Amino acid sequence: ALDQVGVLDEGFFMYSEEMDLCHRLLKAGWDLYWVPEARVTHYGEASSRQAAEAMYVQLYRSKVRFQRKVGGNLYAGYFKVLLALAYVPRWCITRVGALASSRLATRAHTYGRLLLELPTM
Predict the structure, then answer these.
(1) Residues 28, 88: contact at Cβ < 8 Å?
(2) Please, which of 30, 68, 100, 102 could form a disulfide with 25 given CB 3.0 to 4.6 Å?
(3) How far apart are the first and last CA of the chain?
(4) CB count, 10 Å around CB of 72?
(5) Rg of the chain taking only CA atoms, in angstroms
(6) What is the pLDDT of residues 82-105, one digit of tens each?
(7) CB 12: neighbour CB atoms within 10 A?
(8) pLDDT tens digit string along 5-58?
(9) How confident is the prediction for the chain on average, in pLDDT?
(10) pTM of the predicted structure, to 2 decimals
(11) 56 and 77 Cβ atoms separated by less than 8 Å
(12) Contact 96, 103 (CB under 8 A)
């Protein structure tokens, strides 16, 4: 299967490469299976914890890249509009909550950074 569709796309940095691979496999006619008995040990956020805000933004940068790769600039543009519609209210609410909680202040800053970088994605 990998000989036919290729390996993970190195253009994705840390996120969405598995979605891209699955998409390419499906397009090539391969079947995908979910095996609930399979077990994987993942040491959560061992790499991304050190730069949580940057990695959060990178997650969405990869998602936008996937939308662009699958559907072109129009798909990516629609996706970015949906992200903005989802994150502007979150940013506003966490900004208000930031007055009482440093955790919400951190989250508000992250959401703000995502919204600022969204147009360049």
Answers:
(1) no
(2) 30
(3) 31
(4) 10
(5) 17
(6) 999 999 999 999 999 999 999 999
(7) 20
(8) 999 999 998 899 999 999 999 999 999 999 999 998 877 666 666 688 999 999
(9) 93
(10) 0.85
(11) no
(12) no
Write the secondary structure of the chain as one string of H (helix), E (strand) and C (coil). Answer: CHHHHCCCCCCCCCCCHHHHHHHHHHHCCCCCCCCCCCCCCCCCCCCHHHHHHHHHHHHHHHHHHHHHHHHHHHHHHHHHHHHHHHHHHHHHHHHHHCCCCHHHHHHHHHHHHHHHHHHHC
Half-sphere exposure of 111 (CA within 13 A, CB side): 20
With beta carbons less than 8 A apart as the criterion, state whether 12 and 66 touch.
Answer: yes
Residue at token pair 């979910």: 34
